[in-house]
Protein 1
Amino acid sequence: MENAFTVDVEEWFHICGVGGALEEENWTELPSRVVETTNGLLELLDRRNVRATFFVLGWVANRYPHLVGRIRSAGHEVASHGYSHRRVYELGPQAFAEDLDRSLRALSLAGAETVLGYRAPEWSINDRSLWALEILARRGILYDSSMTPLRLLGNPSYSEIPHSQRTPSGEIVEFPPLVGRRLGQNYPLGGGWGLRMHSPRTVLRRIEERNNRGLPAALFVHPWELDPDPPRVRLPLGHRFAHYFRLDGFAKRLNEILAGAAFAPMEAVLKLERPAA
Ligand SMILES: [Zn+2]
């Protein structure tokens, strides 16, 4: 049973909802780490012979098209993480469509002409932005991985397994991230601080439970989580936790997780067919 391994390719300063020094107008002035950290992740995956889906931020693809080329030539799938790393429900339909188109253009210019998948920044397709699914379907996007079955970011009532979402412009498959469950509550496990804080054994056991029911799981990481020398700024508490909690030793734990289950890109796990060019 193959599970989806995914990477959101963005800089350490692409954090939703914090203004000030990390405002978009300052991005070009901040130290860029994305090429180095993504290269590290590519090496880690290559050593484990794992192919993954890389949801590349359009802003990154635009600045570093060769990085998109390197990801593709290593055999990974390239998909979209939007362009400007803004929450979908804050953009609204018009600006979301523009941000999506801009990201697809940047990926295409970098050589990724056919993009099948999309992941919103900060899991921001939720009850406030379900209209986004139709816009994705209209652009020919076959799957989305932006709706998390967690409270605050998403909704605990959302399905935990890949499923089809109907829109007036056709169907789109939704592939949620892995969550754990304790005392009747879902908790983060497939990525972010949830993946970093739990032992590889706990994560692998949850994947195995899922696989034993004939269902795949999805994990996600960010290049900045594997930065040996990460730049840091003062963040509000919630963001500080999401970004800085237990980065120590994460590469080693991730390596164990990669060795303990079978992983593939989302398009392969979902057995999607690429449209003829
Ligand atoms: Zn992101």
Protein 2
Amino acid sequence: MSLSIGIIGLPNVGKSTLFNALTGGNILAANYPFATIEPNTGIVPVPDQRLNDLSTLYGGAPIKPATVTFVDIAGLVAGASKGEGLGNQFLANIRTCNALIHVVRAFNDPDVIHIDGAADPARDISVINTELVLADLQTVENRLPRLQKEARANPKLAALSAKLQQIHALLDSGKPVYGSGMDMEGLEDLQLITAKPVIYLFNIDDTDLANDARHQELAALVAPAEALFVSAKLEAELSGLDATDQTELLESYGQSESGLIQVIHAAYRTLGLQSYLTAGEKEVRAWTISQGATAPQAAGVIHGDFERGFIAAEVVSCSDLLAAGSLAGARAAGKVRTEGKTYVMQPDDVVEFRFNVSK
Ligand SMILES: Nc1nc2c(ncn2[C@@H]2O[C@H](COP(=O)(O)OP(=O)(O)OP(=O)(O)O)[C@@H](O)[C@H]2O)c(=O)[nH]1
Ligand SMILES: [Mg+2]
């Protein structure tokens, strides 16, 4: 399972600045609307100190971190569904993403042009959300008549057709699919944008990073969705520094985590994901699974055969393994457990699966 996140928002709000900072990339971020035309894609390792510690324990074993793919696209404007700005065709580039980061301008800088004169977070958010709903409406209106026709010939499709009609009504009333209680089962291939979970990222002045009152005021605009407060400008400065200098600079703004970590944690939370680890001399590696996944399901992320032929999982918590200094030490201390098919994976698990491929 590889996590991918699409970055959306109005033009000139800091999407590409953020993308560059997150991915360590060097694409054009410029002070004019529509600086981005072609989509930019960047793959980022998920920082995880446990992998470094395990690598040391296993004699410098190579690290294979989990990854997140970020996709930076052009800015959307009001009327994009009717061709305003660059239109909305480029939304196709985020259709396969698992989640969206909606960047909202909340910084003050008279030198940075705002497409509608001045930043107004509430209005700006609703402009984008309206365009996403309209884009989905176009997708649904393309499909609905065909599905209705097919359903008349094949009664098995009646339920699906009725469901798409309900989704159409929902979108037509201006509401996104995500959070509506509607699911997309059977209609996944439509890849509706508004069916994806959205995390709002308010691009704020660095002087507002510790301003709780400001955060609350902005978070209230999007609740119950998750809101993050990041200064893309500060993130850009951070990305050029080594780890120690990064921590110092962040601390000087009262921050304990970089924007990248905040974004990744928020995405994992929103999507209900967690990781587990495998470790040995050959490699130490993080794997991404759904929260609540059982041991065989977790094994299946490595290889389908591991799930089908699952026998047992040898599990030790990473902190116990590191404290013991070796797997043998952890075993001697009684910290290594053998778990069966119904075991629910925990986020700090280091696992070795036993399986039988001939099954
Ligand atoms: N003051 C300030 N300026 C910023 C911040 N983030 C971005 N900018 C500036 O805003 C301008 C636009 O940034 P981009 O990252 O290119 O914006 P974008 O959203 O990708 O814009 P499009 O690609 O045109 O849709 C640039 O001049 C950035 O330097 C910020 O946090 N503070
Ligand atoms: Mg851009």
